[in-house]
Write a structure and sequence with these properties.
Nitrilase/N-carbamoyl-D-aminoacid amidohydrolase, alpha/beta
């Protein structure tokens, strides 16, 4: 199936209401151009580092009024929406960083909770401890849709190649990597990691990104990317916010995997370590 997609590059702030207004406007613009599948970055509804502020603004998934409005929008516009991640409350002091895939009937088709949490010290002034606020997921997800089989991941997952290999071995043809990559790591690693995941698995990689200096002081890298199964960048939005349109031909997945059948090369290794 040759589908028409659009990804959305955002600069999400601290107000979920404003985030919804931005999404509503951009999604309607995409549909006016004939798009039938929209995907968004990590932390689409809110970008907030401090847990005390975050928990005042988020709710459980079932109570989220803006999520309900987006489900209604998907049904109204006959559109699939992949919310790259939507922050939801899962306990008194815990949240989930969750992909929510909404079908064209407005139903939640699948969910994925981020497995690999971003606990890093980039510099003396830039530190992140996601595990303090978020509960890690424990299940990888491949979602069968009219657009193909989608492998769902989020941001820091990108640094764990075995996850992507397992998704591809389970049938995934398009790997989604919605992200809020820091500017510092993005400029050095973003393109290389995404190309590697595409080449290693013979899959399309779709990576909607956050971009810019956010209200919470975090600076994200942007450069939303679409990469084909041969590792070629077919679409990129280097800066700013807004839509990036593209098409995907799943025949390219089959061709790439026939040329380089590395997914069939599963082996165990005996490693000898010598002092």
């Amino acid at each position: 199936m040759l589908a028409k997609y659009s990804l959305i590059q955002l600069k999400t702030g601290r107000n979920p209401r404003e985030s919804f207004k931005t999404l509503d406007s951009l999604i309607r613009k995409a549909v006016d151009k004939g798009i039938n599948f929209v995907s968004t970055p990590e932390t689409t509804n809110i970008m907030e580092l401090k847990g005390s502020r975050l928990f005042k603004k988020i709710t459980a998934e079932k109570d989220d009024i803006f999520l309900k409005k987006l489900r209604a929008l998907a049904k109204e516009l006959n559109l699939w929406i992949n919310l790259g991640s939507w922050i939801v409350k899962t306990g008194k002091n815990k949240a989930s960083n969750r992909t929510i895939l909404i079908d064209s009937d407005g139903k939640i088709h699948s969910r994925y909770d981020k497995i690999h949490l971003f606990d890093v010290k980039i510099s003396e002034t830039e530190k992140y401890l996601e595990s303090k606020t978020y509960k890690a997921g424990n299940k990888a997800v491949v979602s069968k849709t009219p657009f193909g089989k989608l492998g769902l991941t989020i941001c820091y997952d990108l640094r764990f190649p075995n996850l992507y290999r397992d998704l591809a071995l389970s049938g995934a043809e398009i790997l989604f990597v919605p992200s809020a990559f820091t500017f510092h790591t993005g400029k050095d690693h973003w393109h290389s990691l995404l190309k590697a995941r595409a080449i290693e698995t013979g899959s399309f990689v779709v990576a909607p990104a956050q971009n810019g200096l956010h209200e919470n002081g975090r600076k994200t890298y942007g450069h939303s990317l679409v990469i084909n199964p041969w590792g070629k960048i077919v679409a990129e939005k280097k800066k700013g916010t807004g839509l990036l349109d593209f098409t995907i031909n799943l025949d390219e997945v089959q061709r790439a995997r026939l040329k380089i059948p590395s997914l069939k090369g599963n082996k165990s290794y005996i490693i000898n370590c010598h002092d």
